[in-house]
Amino acid sequence: MSQQPNPQTVTLTIDGRSVTVPKGTTILRAAEMVGIKIPHYCYHPGLSSPAMCRLCLVEVEGWPKLAPSCKTAVAEGQVVHTDSEKARAQRTGVLEFYLVNHPLDCPICDQSGECKLQDYVFAEGRVHGRSREPKRVFGRDDFGGDVLFYGDRCVMCTRCVRFMREVAQDDRLCVVERGSRSVIDTFFEKGLEGSPFAGNIVDICPVGALVSKDFLYKARAWDLDHTPSVCPSCSQGCNISIHTRDNLVQRLKPRENLEVNGWWMCDYGRFNYEWMNRRDRLSVPVVGGKAVGWSEAVNSLAEDLRAAIGQGAVRAVCSPLASNEDMGFLRALVDVLGGGEIYYRSRRAPDEIVLPGYPILARRRDLAPNVRGAELQGMIRVGDDEARGGLDQVASHEGIVLVLGDPLLDQGEDFGGRAAVYVYFGTYPSVAAGRARFVLPITTFAESEGTWINVQGRVQRFWPALRAPGEAWPAWRVLGSMLAALGEGPAPAEAHVAFERVAQRTPALEGISYRDIGTRGVMVREPALVSGD
Amino acid sequence: MSDSSGIPFNNPGWAGNTGEFQLTEAQVRGDDYVGERPKEGTHPATAATYPYMLADKDPSAPLFEGPYRERWDKIRSRYPDARSALLPTLGLAQELRGYLSPETMEEVARLLDLSPAYVRGVATFYTMYNKRPVGRFLIQVCTNISCNLCGADEVLQAFLNNTGTELGETSEDGLFTVVEAECLAACGFPTCVQINSRYYENVTPKDVPAILERLKTQGE
Amino acid sequence: MAYPYTHPKEVRLLSRYFGDPGARSLEGWKARGGYQALPKAFEMGRDRVIEEVKASGLRGRGGAGFPTGVKWSFMPKERTRPHYLLCNADESEPGTFKDRELLRWTPHQVIEGIAIAAYAIQAEQSYIYCRGEFFETTQVLARALEEAYEAGILGENAMGSGIRIDITIHVGAGAYICGEETGLMNSLEGRRGQPRVKPPFPAQAGYRGMPTTVNNVETLASVPYITLHGGEAYRAYGTDQSPGTKLFCVSGHVRKPGNYELPLGFPLMELIEDVCGGLREGRRLKAVIPGGSSVPILSAEECWDCLLSYEGVAKAGSQLGCASVIVMDDTTDIVKQVRRMVGFYAHESCGQCTPCREGSAWMEKILRRIEEGRGTEEDLDTLMEVAGQMEGTTICVLSDSAAAPVKSSIMKFRDEYLARIRTGERVGAA
């Protein structure tokens, strides 16, 4: 190979390791690429770099002073030391400064366990603090919305101010005063109320200065399990992490995905999780009013369905919250039963709410995660913007009626009263499910593995964060067993198999596997789907 | 040696009879050269330079109306963008109202198309913007090193004693607020005291009662 | 008629008309030889003006001492975007009171200097960032500026040259840090006056991202002289590395404090003893801060052979800064004065960088405790280390400035600290 230097890249040495990175990369990013994490507060990849926390300073050979690695671009042949005596002493010194006025109230601080001040001080702080002086006290301030501010814990990194200014472009936070009297504040009593994205400032606060009222004192960070997932609240499909404890969702946090949501999510999605914790769940299969086991339910249903084949078209309703796996198997079942139409209803907001500084992210009009998936399976949108109505032709259908996931809250007791076979695959009890001979408990997305396709046409995976109640199965498993009982191939035992089966019969998903999708998602192979809302 | 005030002080800042210094107060201050400046300003280049404490302080005075609007337009015309005009605009608002209330900050924000929080962040960075009402006379005593070496602490104490106030508080008659100031750049004439927009130099504790008396009778 | 104190050893290139009210007006200034340099500059052309200033060796008078001509030559040669000249009149360094005198006695001298510099660096718009407290001073400057506009010296067609030179007075609002050039630019943009990370340097991206030069008042006031008489004439004064004259602001315990314009390289002791009339009766010299409160304190012994040039003061262990000589006699309470200085930096820290924000306030608290007789010897070690952690670790040098008096005073006056710690006894009174 030739040693011709590429004008677009720069090669430098960081802690003895040679790194080649694109020109203009900062030292901090270059170090990250080889797994060297340089401590920092004010730097955030989604925000401007003020280089003011002075924690990320590193030694560059030949330079008189330490350089802020978050702001300093790499140079050819540069030799950087992030762990030299000078660099370490700098961090230890800065950390001591942070603690001069810090209240050290970790035992009652929500951030404890995921606090960058704790982490860094534990790693490189002084063993004993030297300050004997009385501490500065700012106290607690309600910033409005979900955000509570503990001024004494603040490290003045100003990430929150910059997020509101640069990303939300809703300049409601400011640094008030100067010097050691500086403190973050809102405009007097006018806080963050009504800001659709303010919850993000709690995420990016590296310490416990900004905490969520919703999460306040609910759980210790180290007791939480984190599961990668996708936000179910609109068709944007923001990548999230579901934080659970005791089989309950405690909070949702955005998960970085530059193609979808960056580091952010909206507050509507963030706080729309309580339904995942509902206890009034369908938990055992019920056939003709009697609780039965799954094998009995499947066999009995297969028998009824076989008998009903040929007695006219099937009419089905599917929730746009269902996964591609569920939807694909529903479509397959409908086809095996002689074909018919599948309807879906999605609540629609009047407007999109765009995040101005990251405009590919918006709270979309469709308040459901898999409208694109439903379209892909040829489902027909019915009903109004509140996801009501539009089901008259199903309610009184005389053939087979299948309902998957839609709670039918607007439907009466006589729904499906004339159906030859009425099957309700659901999560919650529903009045309209009263006439269903088969009431089969399925899991929510939070309890199962699956995929959705977002507004961009990106297929994204989610993983089970909660244990399913009782006997509830993922819908694809129920449907797959049904198909198997009807002689249509083996029942898929795992989600990735279910996806592959669906992918085989769905051109837009052809050749895509779970491995391809990974944690970041891939675009579907159908350009028509990759359009705006 | 006499001076315009008639009070024989050792005070070149406004009397001019120290050492070889033989000027009247007006000559020292440049009052005779500057003359009267119209409220609406003259040339836009200088529209931001008015002494803010001389106007009647009315916290509810309309902002940026009449001649003040004219002056603000002149100020604004000298900057390539609205944000750059923020400091002089806040200065003009304080000239009228005496301090920057939340409402004033909001009005300024609207005028310049900035967010109120942003304006608050900037206004609180600078010490000359009063965030709460102050007395008719804001007395700022420099206690930084050069003045301090020459007895500034005693001068500050004298002002507090003679006005009967605590540091930063306003006297009951609403006339005086005494605060400690950082270096006022008159280190050769210690102690330097700024009263509203005027400098009083070479002030010693024994000068203080007469200075206060002069303020009461003649204004600054 | 005379300014408070003058001295025969002075070389009054800039300060000749201090205390002369007649020099303020345009008419008066012209009668004293003003506004001859600007037309000459137009004749010379930009490059020669810059060359002359380079040849003069004039160094920035705001404290850093960077060669002015070199600074100007960093500006782009081709003007594709607006260029700006910012005159730094935010004089706030404790001990410094020269710019106010230049502005209030000789405003046209400063205006002419700005006009020449603006011409040289192709700045159509210049701003004079005046310290907010300078109400009286800016009134005088404003009147002078109005006169200059009326006379056609400034404006679209400055003195008939066809060149646009506009100058606007901008007033600050009380923040020492706005005297730092990038803090000044932020403040001028209507932001909090927090210094910016360099690079980019102002000549690349300054005010509103445009090429910008920031010069101190005294620097710009020197420009007309250099333009008129040539760089060599200016170099006739001062030393090789520190050419020209400098306004020395002498304050503190001398009989005749004031501004004295002397050639650089003037002996410090001669300034104190002769020019300023010495100390008060029966007092002995204890310490001198030679360049404003941001530079290390010199003990009396260090002053003896100290020459007041950039290199001379550096040799003595401090910096010339803006040549603000603060003289302290044996009545001085060093602990108290250092505490007061550190309190100033804590008050003026912009609060961006952690070491400065937290360190300056922490040092003030420790020093106050020592001053009140509740200190320990370990406090001195802590102070030294904290000061060390503040040096060279921040965006601007305010942090270093806060550290300088602490470190230098503990090194040079440790006994005084120890006395206060052990017995609670004050050494001096002031």
Topology summary:
The complex is a heterotrimer of chains A (533), B (220) and C (430).
Chain A: E1 9-14, E2 17-22, H1 27-33, E3 57-60, E4 67-68, E5 79-81, H2 85-100, H3 116-124, E6 140-144, E7 147-150, H4 159-167, E8 174-176, E9 183-185, H5 200-204, E10 210-212, E11 225-230, E12 239-245, E13 248-254, H6 267-271, E14 286-287, E15 290-291, H7 294-308, E16 314-318, H8 324-336, E17 340-344, E18 353-354, E19 362-363, H9 371-376, E20 380-381, H10 392-395, E21 400-404, E22 421-426, E23 438-441, E24 450-453, E25 458-462, H11 475-485, H12 495-504, H13 514-517, E26 522-523
Helix pairs in contact in A: 2-3, 7-11, 8-11, 8-12
Chain B: H1 25-29, H2 31-34, H3 66-77, H4 86-97, H5 102-112, H6 116-125, E1 137-142, H7 145-149, H8 152-163, E2 176-181, E3 193-195, E4 198-200, H9 208-218
Parallel strand pairs in B: 1-2
Antiparallel strand pairs in B: 1-3, 3-4
Chain C: H1 26-31, H2 37-44, H3 46-56, H4 68-73, E1 83-89, H5 99-105, H6 107-121, E2 123-130, H7 135-150, E3 166-171, H8 181-188, E4 212-216, H9 217-235, E5 245-252, E6 258-263, E7 266-267, H10 268-275, E8 285-289, E9 298-299, H11 300-303, E10 307-308, H12 310-316, E11 324-329, H13 334-348, H14 354-371, H15 377-390, H16 398-412, H17 414-423
Parallel strand pairs in C: 1-2, 1-4, 2-3, 5-11
Antiparallel strand pairs in C: 5-6, 7-10, 8-9, 8-11
Helix pairs in contact in C: 2-6, 2-9, 3-6, 3-9, 5-6, 5-7, 6-9, 13-14, 13-16, 14-15, 14-16, 15-16
CATH architectural designation of the largest domain in chain C: 3-Layer(aba) Sandwich
* Chain pair forming the biggest interface: B-C, 69 and 82 residues
CATH class of the largest domain in chain B: Mainly Alpha
Radius of gyration of chain C: 22 Å
Fold-level CATH name of the largest domain in chain B: Arc Repressor Mutant, subunit A
Order of helices and strands of chain B: HHHHHHEHHEEEH
Number of strands of chain C: 11
Q: Which structural category fits the helices and strands of chain C?
A: alpha/beta
* Beta strands of chain B, count: 4
